[in-house]
Design goal:
- The protein has 594 residues and is mainly beta.
- It folds into three domains: 124 residues, Immunoglobulin-like; 188 residues, Cupredoxins -  blue copper proteins (Immunoglobulin-like), CATH 2.60.40.420; 192 residues, Immunoglobulin-like.
- The protein contains six helices and 33 strands.
- The strands form seven sheets. The chain has a six-stranded mixed β-sheet with strand order 10-9-12-17-14-15, with no helix packed on it.
- Strand 23, helix 5 and strand 24 form a beta-alpha-beta unit.
- The radius of gyration is 25 Å and the shape is globular.
- Pfam families: Cu-oxidase, Cu-oxidase_2, Cu-oxidase_3.
- Lignin degradation and detoxification of lignin-derived products.
- GO terms for molecular function: copper ion binding; hydroquinone:oxygen oxidoreductase activity.
Amino acid sequence: MQPGILHRLGSQESSFVLVSSDQVALPVSGSMAMPRRLDQLLLRLMASCFLLQALSVHAITRHYKFNVVMRNMTLLCSTKSILTVNGKFPGPTLYAREGDDVLVKVVNHSPHNVTIHWHGVRQIRTGWYDGPAYITQCPIQPGSSFLYNFTVTGQRGTLLWHAHINWLRATVHGAIVILPKLGVPYPFPAPHKEAVVVLGEWWKADTETVINQAMQLGVGPNISDSHTINGHPGPMSDCASSQDGFNLDVENGKTYMLRIINAGLNDDLFFKIAGHGLTVVEVDAVYTKPYKTDILLITPGQTTNVLVTTDQSAGRYLLSVSPFLDAPLQVDNKTGTATLQYANTVSATARLTLVKPPPQNATPIASKFSESLRSLNSKEYPANVPQTVDHSLFFTIGVGVNPCANCINGTRVVGTINNSTFVMPSTPILQARYYSIPGVFTEDFPATPPHKFNYTGSGPKNLQTMKGTRVHRLPYNASVQVILQDTGIISTESHPIHLHGFNFFVVGRGVGNYNPKASPSTFNLIDPVERNTIGVPTGGWTAIRFRADNPGVWFMHCHFEVHTSWGLKMVFVVDNGKRPSETLIPPPKDLPQC
C-alpha cells in the first residue's frame, strides 16, 4: 500500500483487512487436534485465500456531492464573486481507485447553468456523463441537480474535473486522483508523501464578462492578471507578503510525488522548483518511462506526476509557474509562485532560494520536454499502439476571419478545423444521435482540408470559414490516425488539443508542413507517449493514433478556452459495436433538460 495515501481516503476505503497466518485460529472438533502437517497446510491455504481475497477485492462505489455555489474571493488586493464547488478554489479532490464506480451528485445553487467534465476519464459506454454542454447533455439549470455515474476503467494517475460551459472552469475545477488497485504497487519507488498542485489563471474581472465582451466585439479577450498555484499567486506577486501562497512542507532525505495539473484557461505553463530536480513518472493518468529534468511544460488540460527528492539543505525554495508562448501574441507574463519548505528550517522567514523562469518563448526547452516523454510500455502496462490505420484524417487547426456587422472593423476572429467553425447546437448531439432527432447536426465534417495551401505560411487570401454543426463518423473499433497541422493564418500558434472519451498515442511531431511521404518515417510506433491532450507545436504538426473502441459522441477541441469559444472544435460520432458490451448505455432518467 502506498505510504501517505490510505489515511486520506479514510472511510471511503475498503474495509478489507489483510490477515497473516499467525492470526488465524482453526476450530478443533472435541479433543481431537488435526495432524500437524494438515494443520500447517490448512493454515497456509487459509492465509493464501485471505491474501487473494484482499488483492482481488471487488471495486467499491465512491459517493461525492458537489454543491455549486457563489462565494467572494480576494486576490491581488481585489475582491470578486466567483463560482465554486463546495465553496473551495480550487475545488475538492476526487479520490478513487482503478476499477471503482464513482457517483457525483452535482447540485446547482448558483445563478449559472453548469456542467462538469471528468477530463481524461475514458467514460467507456457512459458518454451521457462526460459533461460538455450541448455535446452530451443539457446544462444543469439553477436549482437543479444531476448524478454523474461512471467507472474508472484501466486508468491510474492524475486527471482533473472542471466545468464545461462558457468560461466557468476558470474557478470550477479540481483534481482527480486515481490510485492503483489495492495491493498493486506503483511501477516506481513509492513516495514518502504526495501532494496535488493545481496551476491556474486569475482575472480580477468576472471571466464571463471578459469573454462575452470579446465575443460581442469580435476580438480577443483580455489576458489574465496572474498565474496561480493551488489558488494563490504566491509570495512574489503584487499585494502579497513573503508568507502568502501555497506552502509545501517537506522533510530532508525523502521523495515526494507531486500531482501537477494545468487548470488554466489559455496559457501553456512552465513549472520549476529552485534547486531540485524532477522525475516525470506519469502524464494524463498513463505511466511513463522515468524522465529526469529540471523543468516541466504543461498545457491546459494536461497533468504530470513527478518525483522530487528533498536533497538540499534546510531552507525555503521557490516553486514557479510561468507562461510559454512562442508566437507574437499577448500573454499573461506574471509568474505564479509557491514555497517548498524543509521541516528543520529555523524560521518561516528564512532566506528564500529563488528560481529563474525560462524565457517566455523558450521553444527549444518546450520541444525537448515534449519529445522526451515515452510510454512505460512494460509487460503490466503495454503501449498498444495501432500499427496499421483504418481511418486516416488530416486536420488543419487555427483561426479565420468572418464578417460581423456589429463587430470592430466589421469582422470577427473565429477558430477553425479544416476551415470549419463549429456552431454549438441547442439540442445535445448525443441526444439527437440516440433519439434520431433531425436537424441538429450533419455528418459532413471534412476528413481533409477543403483548400490546400502553404499551411504554415501566410495562408490563403480568403480567410473566411464555413460555419455549421458538423460531425465526423467513425466505425466501431477502427484504428484512427489524425494529423493535426497548425496554420499561419493571422499567426502560427501552439494548440493544446483535447479528445474526449479516448487516450491517443503521439506517434509523431515536427516543424513546418506535414509531409505524407517523408514524415511517417519518423513515427515512433513502439513506446510513444499516451495522452488525452497534446500541444501541437507552433508552425508544426502532431500525429496521433487511437482505436475507436468507445461508442458515443466525443468532443475534440482546443483547450485554450478562447479558441473553443471561437469555434475551434469538432465532434466524432463513434458507432456501436455488435455486442451489448460495445454499445452505448441508455440515457439516465435524471438527464438534464434544455
